[in-house]
Amino acid sequence: MATMTMAKALNAALADAMLDDERVLVFGEDVGQLGGVFRITDGLQARFGDKRCFDTPLAEAGIVGFAVGLAMSGLRPVVEMQFDAFAYPAFEQIASHVAKLRNRTRGALSVPMVIRVPYAGGIGGVEHHCDSSEAYYAHTPGLKVVTPATVEDAYSLLREAIADPDPVVFLEPKKLYFASADAQLPARTAPFGRAVVRRPGTDATLVAYGPAVPVALEAAEAAREEGWDLEVVDVRTIVPFDDATVTASVRRTGRCLVVTEAQGFAGVGAEIAARVQERCFHALHAPVLRVAGLDIPYPAPMLEHIHLPGVDRVLDTVARLQWDDRPDPRWLAQGSAA
Amino acid sequence: MTTTPQAVRRASPRTRRPATPVAPEPTAGLLPQAEPVRLLDPDGTPLPPRADLPAPPVEALREMYRRMVVGRRFDAQATALTKQGRLAVYPSSRGQEACQVGAVLALRDDDWVFPTYRESMALTARGIDPVEVLTLLRGDGHCGYDPTVVRTAPQCTPLATQCVHAAGLAYGESYQGRDTVALAFIGDGATSEGDFHEGLNFAAVFKAPVVYFVQNNKYAISVPLSRQTAAPSLAYKGVGYGVPSEQVDGNDPVAVLAVLTRAVAHARAGHGPYLVEAHTYRMEAHTNADDASRYRDPDEVEAWRDRDPVARLEAYLRGRGELDDAAVAQVAAEAEEYAADLRTRMNAQPVVDPLSLFDHVFAEPTPQLVEQREMVRAELAADAEGDA
Ligand SMILES: Cc1ncc(C[n+]2csc(CCOP(=O)(O)OP(=O)(O)O)c2C)c(N)n1
Ligand SMILES: [Mg+2]
How many other CB atoms are there within 10 angstroms of residue B137's CB atom? Predict the structure, then answer.
């Protein structure tokens, strides 16, 4: 066991994958000599040479499209988008080719690749550096969408992503890059498609992923004082989604709150809430609620703490899970107004 | 008027000559010729040979003629199939036969082609089964052929996106020690898209062996070239990326094959990408569903009939004694046979399996797809029971 940051674990995963499989090429903007703006590719060029880890021209569609061609030639590209919002120029390549080539060619041509995206906020970044863009990818059939919340998961999920036969959008919560934990590498945690109960509890289930997981865990800890014993499920892989683990938990606890940092409207949290409600209706003592970012463009740094779901907002919402069997007065008021 | 001795000295040729030779222009070898390369007159009369551009061997030109005639017949048959409802839509490349066929003839079988929706004729000329080529347009699948077998990417409709794939594939091949060349087709309109520029730039920076082949057929659906660019010609788009470029008369089959052969050789020799613009003309509407009379003058189309690439090559080969009536008739008969066979095979209703919808979304279906597959299977079973 050693104490290390998520950034280091990701770096180790890249290095180990490059060592194990010479087809793996790592490239993007500033990933070579500099080691990436977050240093996730630190030292890879020095160790593996500038043919295995290299800088590209500044063009995100170009980077991803180039990766498509490399994958067609039998290589295993791992590309870095410098920030969430700067991956948007690549969206056409991702949605029209990366996600679809296997399907369009009836399996003849697959383009396994990993698109690493530092995402979400909480780091005081200026605009265009803090978007939660997971819903765009998760809504695109053909992409696996993965986001780690722990140091060991970061390593394990990235190794699995690079080895996966399908393209993977690998979303790295920026605010967790430099959080450290005890980790034993090379770690192998649960595989793709498996959610994990991070904290067992009996009274309600908090479902979260990526940057919202530590918030949910902190809230669960604080909830003990209020007399609530909360379970926290970490989704880990948004696609493929693990209905089984989530629904088993909610059936046990009878209450569910989905916590996401992303804005709520039409988001992944909405999808999870709908799935839980469809599968657990008779086990539920309260409607499935969501705590999400506000439906606003990501705010300026001095106001991001209002936007981001924090422990207090999570606990306030837990309080609305109809603990005394009375419906939430807000729903009644809305109903009568309608 | 008097001059000072100094001024006389400064003006003298001896002192103006620099001590060291002038470095070549940084654009040397990058800019296209000011006029499109031509080796045949529109009537097929050969122009004087050029030292810098070896003429293709005559066997290659006879083969080119054969494939152009068959290709044109294929194209007409495909258009006819839209009228019979056998194809959802067909973008014709009539008038562009020299480009369609020349491009694939310049390549080896193990090279890669990155076609657009316009390239059905090029793909059949490459030897891909026409029924497989038309799968996309018939609507029973997205791509009928196996790209890895025929070394041809699926026909690409998101404009210009294939340009970066070609760069990546070509670089990946050379990275792995193979001398494969990739040829990416693109239309004049699509050169305005970012991915064309990103493709050229990536290919140049990584010295990827790619030939970018622009078929400037003067229109992007209804929009004329003047709305796409203010450049003197699209071939001038290479110089900014350090990519050598050429423009060619796209209706001169001999010139097209010669220029593309040189471009492919350049790429294969490890000198990086090459850009070729062919000036041609789309004789039909954008697709069968388009009405070209809304945006172009019939006289303009008529004028291009005199520059027909098939007639031009036929005249040239006849003039050289390489083609006679019998050979022409034989090729025409082969083209008819090809079309008849296509007609027959396209008349068969394709078999589609609804449950195949769930195949190949991922290597292994997700639990959600397994569930949805089961739902569709049950719906189909219920329908079948209802019918029984
Ligand atoms: C990104 C994108 N935008 C728009 C379209 C719709 N579209 C299909 S073909 C076409 C015209 C393209 O013209 P050009 O590049 O000159 O090729 P041509 O059709 O003449 O062969 C347009 C606008 C598209 N397929 N992709
Ligand atoms: Mg055009």
Answer: 22
Residue B326 CA to its chain's centroid (Å): 31
> Is residue B209 in a domain?
yes
Nearest to B158 among A96, A102, A240 (CB): A96
Entry field: residues in chain A: 338
Pairwise CA distance, residues A166 & B373, whole Å: 20
pTM of the model: 0.94
Q: How far apart are CA B82 and CA B90, in angstroms?
A: 7
Name which CATH class applies to A2-183.
alpha beta
**What is the side-by-side strand order in the sheet with A230-234?**
A196-199, A230-234, A204-208, A256-263, A289-293
pLDDT over 80 (residue B388): no
Residue-range definition of the domain harbouring residue B371 = 354-387
Q: Is the torsion defined by CA of A269, A272, A274, A280 positive or negative?
A: negative
- CA-based nearest distance B141→chain A, Å: 7
**Residue among B143, B170, B198 whose CB faces A65 most closely:** B198
Cβ of B361 and A102 within 8 Å? yes
**Bond before A327 cis per omega within 30 degrees:** no
Q: Tell me if A138 sits within 8 A of A163, measured CB to CB.
A: no
SS3 label, residue A282:
helix
Q: pLDDT at position B127, please?
A: 98
Give the CATH number of domain A196-337: 3.40.50.920
Best of A48, A56, A60, A73 to disrupt the B interface (most B CBs within 10 Å) is A73
* Ligand 1 centre distance from Cα of residue B190 (Å): 6
Is the pLDDT at B13 greater than 70, yes or no?
no
